[in-house]
Amino acid sequence: MRVLITTDVVGGVWQFTHELTTGLLREGSSVALVSLGGSPTAEQQNQSDRLTSEYGDQFLFESSPAPLEWMQQNYGAYHDAAPLLMRIANEFRADLLHSNQFCFGALPLDIPKIVTAHSDVASWAEACRPEPLENSPWLRQYQRLVADGLNGATAVFAPTRWMLNALQRNFPLRVRCAVIPNGRTLLRTADATRQLRGITAGRLWDEAKDIRMLADVTSPFPLYVAGEIRHEGAQAPTHLGPATLLGRLSEDHLMHSFRESAIYICTSRYEPFGLAPLEAALCGCAVLARDIPSLREVWKDAARYFSDPQSLTDLLQELGNDPDALQAAQRRSEARAQFFSAERMITGYRAEFALALNQAEARSYAA
After folding, report:
1. For residue 312, which of 39, 145, 228, 288 sits 20 to 30 Å off, Cα-Cα?
2. Residue 208's closest CA among 299, 306, 304, 121?
3. pTM
4. CATH number of the domain that 285 lies in?
5. pLDDT in tens, 128-149
6. Residue 6 sits in the same domain as residue 142
């Protein structure tokens, strides 16, 4: 199987596609990975270089500065990237496109086109904004890009039922849709010295993460925040009460910080899946999650839930004063996290890719 996968360099989509790409390569498929949204970070480029070194011609990586469809300057999101993707699809002899942006479901390719919905602006706005988004040229362009991509897709997937339902509320879906949960593989390492401290990770300027909630929390032990502090056009808090700002960390440094911490705090008001709490739980943290439907779907009774700064304060006080309760919470979160393995995710996508290819072959015979 020869798969063309699109990714972006801005958020968790990169980690998702890196896991999927690595798994497909290990199982014998060939993958062309194309990143969008700017230049890859040094860490992202190094990850791709390692795959090239290990798999040779079986793997191809290219990047494009083309904007992402949700960015303010989104008029080139499709047209700036389409020629590159069409060329790579032809030269790489791709059997299937897996797009992690909506708009490329509209590419005029005679192969199955799978779209994964990691998030969307409409459901983000419902969760993060008290008023509907202004009907601006940017929003109209975004809606056109998403609708065209979904209409052209062979199948659409999402990491949670909540995300799929949210997408269906805002856009017509006339193709096969299903849920394939995200998964993560973390290499086993010697345990760090775990401390009684909490940590969270996310862009401080991102309304969806709502990390500024920590400014109103009282904690009996230290709290840390890992993530970008500055962003053009966005105001990030410079003081978060008891929390220490760590800035953006490399993946290795972030995983080490998780292994040193006792608790992961997911403050997100919008989180279609949430890779960071999954990673933290795999590193041994108890997960404290905001009580929103998507996080309830992922974590069920394996997380402790809060709804506001006071209920989070109460949880931190409880777990800080009761080591047995803290250890029980850590065990539940880690056990639940084991369900979301990269192997399970890769198996799910491989099966769906094979189904799409078989259906395409059957249609070509019938034509």
Report:
1. 228
2. 121
3. 0.93
4. 3.40.50.2000
5. 988 888 889 999 999 999 999 9
6. yes
